[in-house]
Amino acid sequence: MNGGGETGGIPVSPSLIPALDSLPPAPGSSAGDPRVLTISALAILVAGAAGVIAQALIRLIGFITNVSFYGRASTSFASPAGNHLGWWVVVVPVVGALIVGVLARYGSAGIRGHGIPEAMEQVLTNQSRIPARLTLLKPLSAAISIGTGGPFGAEGPIIATGGALGSLVGQLHRTTASERKTLLAAGAAAGMAATFGAPVSSVLLAVELLLFEYRPASLIPVALASVTATGVRLAFGGPLPVFPMPALAAPHAGALAVYVLLGAGVGWASVWVTHAVYWIEDQFERLPVHWMWWPAIGAVAVGVVGYFAPRTLGVGYDNITGILGGQILGSALVTLFVLKFVSWVISLGSGTSGGTLAPLFIVGGGLGATLGALARTAAPGAGVDLGVAALVGMAAMFAGASRAFLASVVFALEATRQPFAILPLLGGGAAAYLVSYLLMPDTIMTRKIARRGVRVIGEYGVDPLERGIVGERMHVPAVTISSGDTVGDVRRWLDSGVPGSGHQGFPVVGEGGELRGVLTRRDFRQAAGPELVGDLLTRAPVTVHEGHTLRHAADLMVAHAVGRLPVVSSADPKAVIGIITRSDLLRAHEPRLEEAHAVQGIDVRRLWLDRSR
């Protein structure tokens, strides 16, 4: 342990140790960390800026769209579908993609892709540090890509830009990696909220895809950022839902069952959509040309598809509204979502700058409405509503592809303001989530970084060490050594094999029983010179109280590179009442394994031994 020569462990900044030592003696005995006020204030500033950037980016996309397809100077948001360019429409996406390729090669390769996987990778591997240049290059490249017909939504680049802005602020201001992650997530959530006016689903998206945790210190700043960005959107665009649709009635039981099955079907399709994205990406990897040219090659497909189906060009938010409102039906609907999928999957696989949410919504909504029409034909008495079927398909596609289940369901509610859709969305989204969970190890957001060896954990639970208390796991009484003993006597005692002499570390106490330090077997073996045990002590002991959590004990062990801690009385910090070791912390996981794996009295230890063999 400490006080002698125990080595090993993880090097920790000295500034961490006082912070750990100052933790309260018992869980829940004090208020939260006031640093959350500072981070919340920064998150609000980031969100305000992200909201303005979102509006600027939308207008920039509109300007490039108007210039590229209509030859007019206007920032109004326009669909490329009404162009009269004929076959020249193929050239426009190619020119845009060439510019994006140049920006990626000579500016930053980080602008490639749809942004969220890249942000996740920075969170997991680079302490949430996103290069500052991406704050400018990502929205610029996305505006060029989408404005020249790229089949992406504006929300992906805005989310990525907001995240980059949050990371930049965290790097400029003195923050920890955890606080920087919170600011990154706050910026990303603000980007989504500023685009769709969906603050709750934006918070859930940040939790499910970027934060990898659920704590007040991170949740509060993200929530305040989402509210702020939504307020900015309201100031620019008003309070109307982003995807208005006719009012929905409460579903019947039969229809509800159909929506759940429909969600499962769309969830199955989401698995293949994910496979297709990365299969196309693999094909581009095999091309014998530099990746700078790949977006232009993919853009040829975008232009050709756009010639035959102009609705596939651009963001397509109007297509989502048309699908939900029932204005696009039958063969026109099938043509739209199939060709949109073809155009999007090729373009995204080419590594250009764009997003995934809007294309997934169009593909999922179109597929959901089509399956709903088939179900209504097969079971006319079930009361299937095509608008609800489209909405369920939209949420189910995103839930299955990204596994952001709660964000998908709540987003569909916030984007349409249809309260009676809650049950179909919850049932269909859960079914899609289940199918994706069973059939696909990674998601459309995580497969790219998983291929690079970065493991993304999609399941969160309460830390067993947070649930355990030191007093429940410590060894009582602790075997102590007197500081007045001679080193030779202690060595002979260690070799005697008597009970207690086999431990690896021992608290050293003074004549009055007060704790003076901790020494290990190695300290006694390597000692050369001092004759008394007290002379071997070189630093004060690191201790815990019986009311501390096991997580606090583990953090102290890591920070001080020790393997055991004396447990002292909260009433008398010098009185040793026990000792806790690394092995005790490992054994704290036994209840978790029992809960997860033991069935009808099966010994979980034997079960895990059998599996390991």
Class derived from helix and strand content: mainly alpha
CATH class of the largest domain: Mainly Alpha
Distance between the termini: 33 Å
Q: What is the CATH architecture term of the largest domain?
A: Orthogonal Bundle
CATH-wise, what's the superfamily of the largest domain? Clc chloride channel
Domains (count): 3
Biggest β-sheet: strands ordered side by side in the sheet: 1-2-3
Measured by DSSP, the beta-strand proportion falls in under 5%
Largest sheet: 3 strands, mixed
- Helical segment count: 26
CATH fold-type name of the largest domain: Clc chloride channel
Strand element count: 6
Average predicted confidence as pLDDT: 85
Principal-axes shape call: elongated
Whole-angstrom Rg: 30 Å
Multimeric organization: single chain
Could you estimate the helical fraction of the residues in percent?
A: 55-70%
Q: Which stretches are poorly predicted, pLDDT < 50 over at least 5 residues?
A: 1-29
